[in-house]
Design goal:
Elements: H1 14-26, H2 35-64, H3 73-82, H4 85-115, H5 119-139, H6 141-154, E1 166-170, H7 177-184, E2 190-193, E3 200-208, E4 211-217, H8 231-243, E5 246-251, H9 261-274, E6 280-284, E7 297-298, H10 307-321
Parallel strand pairs: 1-4, 1-5, 5-6, 6-7
Antiparallel strand pairs: 2-3, 3-4
């Protein structure tokens, strides 16, 4: 479901939707055996065309937003942060109601037109139908606008596969997270826009035997202490909690990143608290410059030193957390 946000169609506003439906109907002109038959056939076709466009378009909007089950907590949390899950469900419910109401009106007026033997009355029924469906569609004008705005936000969600083992990289900026993802990945990481930060999310993958592993860096979320984050960011971290099977916390003991080890260790404690229950591996980077005497894993993401050993540790840890038989 990683790319479902991009499959959501453009959401028309109420006037655009009505214009689309009535434009389609305006092109309908049928001939009958006499004046009454011509008016009846044309009116029936116009009402059918209008109702079909309204119903199918509205239901397409509703169906484009998937029903998120328990296995998709990550996207559920992100949607809740971005647009509000309850508000989205309410607006989609209103759009579904409108589709059903338009369908009911279509059936009712088709029945009444078929039973009429007065050409002028049939024309009046058609105009009356246009007025009533217009009123119904305009009632959900704000809901269409809200769903349209939600669609634009959700299309920016990162394309992350929630079904495969996932490693989340944490640490201050400039400690070497991007370099590490590039060294661990078979290909250059994909960088996607993310709604919680002006920076991009970096996503890399590597394979071992028959399994694929995913590595994600979320700049702007896990690079400062919990007490410095705003409520939106804290909710976003909850979303990351559903995604991560393993956290790699990267430290720079050389402090060339501009952050002291005291600051980095404090952030480590904050991340551990925020994402408690998720396995975490502490890794010191830049051993090509300086090596500390700590017991942490040591690497040089720039030179590639220790990266394969870290990959092995990742695979061993994830094999315990998410077995191959897991869905």
């Amino acid at each position: 479901m990683s790319d479902w946000g991009r499959r959501i169609p453009t959401i028309l506003n109420s006037q655009e939707l009505l214009d689309k439906a009535f434009h389609k109907a305006s092109k309908v002109n049928l001939r009958g055996t006499n004046t009454l038959d011509t008016v009846k056939k044309t009116s029936l076709a116009k009402v059918s065309a209008t109702g079909d466009i309204l119903n199918s378009t509205l239901m397409k909007y509703v169906r484009a937003f998937p029903s998120l089950d328990k296995r998709e907590e990550f996207y559920s949390e992100l949607i809740d942060v971005l647009v509000g899950m309850d508000d989205l469900k309410k607006s989609l419910g209103a759009i579904g109601w409108c589709a059903r109401r338009c369908n009911d009106l279509q059936r009712d007026y088709l029945r009444r037109i078929r039973g009429s033997k007065d050409a002028s009355f049939i024309e009046r029924l058609r105009r009356e139908y246009y007025g009533r469906v217009s009123s119904v569609v305009r009632q959900i004008g704000k809901d269409l606008e809200f769903v349209g705005e939600s669609r634009n936000k959700l299309r920016k969600l990162p394309e992350i596969d929630t079904s495969i083992p996932t490693v989340v990289i944490a640490g201050f900026p400039n400690v070497g997270k991007s370099q590490l993802i590039q060294k661990l990945s078979n290909a250059r990481p994909a960088i996607a826009s993310y709604p919680f930060t002006t920076k991009g999310v970096e996503i890399g993958h590597f394979e071992h035997r028959w399994r694929t592993y995913q590595i994600v860096d979320t700049p702007g979320l896990l690079d400062r202490p919990l007490e410095e984050r705003n409520p939106i960011e804290r909710q976003a971290i909850l979303a990351i909690k559903y995604l991560a099977d393993l956290i790699i916390f990267l430290l720079d003991p050389t402090e060339t990143s501009g952050y002291s080890m005291e600051q980095q260790v404090h952030l480590l404690g904050s991340v551990s608290e925020s994402l408690s229950g998720i396995p975490l591996i502490e890794v010191e980077n830049k051993v090509d410059i300086s090596d500390s005497n700590s017991s942490r894993a040591k690497i040089s993401a720039l030179e590639g030193l220790g990266v394969e050993e870290l990959r092995t540790a990742i695979i061993e840890c994830l094999s315990k957390v998410k077995e191959p038989s897991d869905p």
